[in-house]
């Protein structure tokens, strides 16, 4: 029995660690560094119907214990992702979670229908929380009614379970969580980045060309933990937690707060071996904590 | 192969005002091969600063790499505090460097550098010389106090210095020096700020050239799409500075 194994809708994870969407491309770059089959899953970069170039540069700026980014969903478009990127990933024994983005409901539906039929795509992650694009993205993720309707529309066409990625840039994240659960979501992923800014003191201009960017990294971790804790208390569908995860105790804490698995984002840029290192460190840490199976951790903070 | 290694610090010295030369020893040095590639260096040991710093490799050999960088922000200041006998967390070598083989042996190659863009040209010049090419250097700086490696470059070939304030060498820009040269060059190579690269490429149009670009980076390996530049040379319409570059043939990147 693999003590790190976690079962989620559509996903049998050999361990609960996966790179977060947007931080790992479509896997090719990190495949130069280690065997991607080691990962629990891979959340690949957001895919839109048409190719997107993204925002002007600078697209990233460092902040204390974090970073801002405004990439702007740059991707090669559905056709290329389905014909090139996903087939390339088939050489690895790892389930793919395809991140789906768009400007209109019709875009999400079209991408979801097609990409969910790819043999290695085991789940979708509906991106209704990207703060860096003018249309779509976060506009779908801040209104419970719209978020619920979009979830329903995508569920109707998807061949695999649908997870919805939630934005932290809302007054009450549980309201959105309940709305997408009612819309038929099979699971939730949270948090996306927090909208932030940084300025150049010499010029007064924002450092990021887009003006605002999404804050990620250790700086957002307390917010992410709080939201995972609140959301898992108010819905009954599973949650994949993320936001500043960088060491093994972060994994323990996110799962204790209620997450069934954990995604690693910005840490991949700091320690390029962050995911395999976390996977290797987990059994030893479980031993130290007297935990037999990792699933025992899920939501234990709620049971105290 | 890309390695992530704790390299030994074997040298750290200030070679001009706020300009430091850092020498690191480790297995990674054997992987470098071509000049103009870079490493991604962790500045500190904590989460602040969080991201790595991309620094070009100025020279390599005997199991060591030499990095020359300007200490101007929080991260690079921390790097400048790394002491001999300590270690540095290094990922690399990354990116694609200057093609030495583009220069024809027996001919002259023009190397144009500006400020902190000068360092990778040093390793390039050494490799060119080994290949039987005659390097001619035109190096631009703000002022005399930030000029570095003049002697080192002079040992390899003809070297011209320009300073913006005229405190050393020719007063003005690298292009002012270039205008005064009457040599025939089979190829040119350049690294420096964007306006300089543009001026150099314009001045050398008709000659084969290679430019090294700088852009804010996230991952350094091509996954995060932070450092993209527009191009007309492929059907994607973009190149990534970190993994497709940082060196591109002149004309590839739209500037």
From TrEMBL, chain A:
Binds 1 FMN per subunit. The keyword GTP-binding does not apply. Its cofactor is FMN. Pathway: Pyrimidine metabolism; UMP biosynthesis via de novo pathway; orotate from (S)-dihydroorotate (NAD(+) route): step 1/1. It catalyses: (S)-dihydroorotate + NAD(+) = orotate + NADH + H(+); (S)-dihydroorotate + A = orotate + AH2. The active site is at 130 (nucleophile). Heterotetramer of 2 PyrK and 2 PyrD type B subunits. This is Dihydroorotate dehydrogenase. It comes from Bhargavaea cecembensis.
TrEMBL record, chain B:
GO terms for molecular function: 2 iron, 2 sulfur cluster binding; electron transfer activity; flavin adenine dinucleotide binding; metal ion binding; oxidoreductase activity. Pathway: Pyrimidine metabolism; UMP biosynthesis via de novo pathway; orotate from (S)-dihydroorotate (NAD(+) route): step 1/1. Keywords: 2Fe-2S, Electron transport, FAD, Flavoprotein, Iron, Iron-sulfur, Metal-binding, Pyrimidine biosynthesis, Transport. Residues 2-100 form the FAD-binding FR-type domain. GO terms for biological process: 'de novo' UMP biosynthetic process. [2Fe-2S] cluster binds at residues 219, 224, 227, 242. CDD domains: DHOD_e_trans. InterPro entries: Cyt_c3_hydrogenase_gsu, Dihydroorotate_DH_ele_sf, Dihydroorotate_DH_Fe-S-bd, Dihydroorotate_DHASE_ETsu, FAD-bd_FR_type, FNR_nucleotide-bd, OxRdtase_FAD/NAD-bd, PyrK_electron_transfer. Heterotetramer of 2 PyrK and 2 PyrD type B subunits. Belongs to the PyrK family. This is Dihydroorotate dehydrogenase B (NAD(+)), electron transfer subunit.
């Amino acid at each position: 029995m693999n003590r790190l194994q976690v079962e989620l809708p559509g996903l049998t994870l050999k361990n609960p660690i996966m790179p977060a969407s947007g931080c790992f491309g479509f896997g090719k770059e990190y495949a130069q560094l280690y065997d991607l089959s080691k990962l629990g899953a891979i959340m690949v970069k957001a895919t839109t119907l048409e190719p997107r170039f993204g925002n002007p540069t600078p697209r990233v700026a460092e902040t204390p214990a974090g970073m801002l980014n405004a990439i702007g969903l740059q991707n090669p478009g559905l056709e290329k992702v389905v014909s090139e990127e996903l087939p390339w990933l088939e050489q690895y024994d790892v389930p793919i979670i395809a991140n789906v983005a768009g400007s209109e409901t019709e875009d999400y539906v079209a991408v979801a229908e097609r990409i969910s039929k790819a043999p290695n795509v085991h789940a979708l992650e509906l991106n209704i929380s990207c703060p860096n694009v003018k249309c779509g993205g976060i506009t779908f993720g801040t209104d419970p009614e719209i978020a619920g309707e979009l979830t329903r529309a995508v569920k109707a066409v998807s061949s695999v379970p649908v997870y919805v990625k939630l934005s932290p840039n809302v007054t009450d994240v549980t309201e959105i969580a309940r709305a997408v659960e009612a819309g038929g979501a099979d699971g939730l992923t949270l948090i996306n980045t927090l909208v932030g800014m940084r300025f150049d003191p010499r010029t007064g201009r924002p450092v990021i060309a887009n003006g605002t960017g999404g804050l990620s990294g250790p700086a957002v971790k307390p917010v992410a933990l709080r939201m995972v804790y609140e959301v898992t208390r108010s819905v009954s569908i599973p949650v994949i937690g993320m936001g500043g995860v960088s060491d093994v105790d972060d994994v323990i804490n996110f799962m204790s707060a209620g997450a069934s698995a954990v995604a690693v984002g910005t840490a991949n840029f700091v320690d390029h071996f962050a995911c395999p290192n976390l996977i290797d460190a987990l059994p030893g840490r479980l031993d130290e904590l007297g935990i037999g199976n990792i699933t025992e951790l899920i939501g234990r903070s709620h049971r105290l | 192969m890309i390695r992530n290694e704790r390299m030994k610090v074997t040298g750290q010295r200030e070679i001009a005002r706020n300009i430091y030369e850092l020498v690191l020893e480790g297995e990674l040095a054997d992987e470098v091969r071509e000049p103009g590639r870079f490493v991604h260096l962790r500045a500190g040991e904590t989460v602040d600063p969080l991201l790595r710093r991309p620094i070009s490799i100025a020279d390599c050999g005997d199991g060591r790499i030499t990095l020359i960088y300007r200490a101007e922000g929080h991260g690079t200041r921390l790097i400048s505090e790394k002491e001999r006998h300590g270690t540095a967390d290094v990922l690399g070598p990354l990116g694609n460097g200057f093609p030495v083989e583009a220069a024809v042996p027996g001919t002259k190659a023009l190397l144009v550098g500006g400020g902190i863009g000068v360092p990778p040209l040093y390793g390039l010049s050494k490799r060119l010389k080994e290949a039987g090419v005659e390097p001619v250097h035109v190096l631009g700086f703000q002022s005399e106090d930030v000029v570095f490696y003049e002697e080192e470059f002079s040992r390899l070939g003809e070297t011209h210095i320009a300073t913006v304030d005229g405190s050393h060498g020719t007063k003005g820009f690298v292009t002012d020096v270039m205008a005064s040269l009457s040599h025939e060059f089979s190829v040119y190579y350049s690294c420096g700020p964007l306006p300089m690269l543009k001026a150099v490429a314009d001045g050398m149009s008709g000659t084969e050239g290679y430019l090294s670009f700088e852009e804010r980076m996230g991952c350094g390996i091509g996954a995060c799409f932070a450092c993209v530049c527009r191009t007309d040379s492929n059907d994607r319409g973009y190149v990534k500075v970190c993994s497709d570059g940082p060196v591109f043939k002149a004309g590839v990147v739209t500037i």
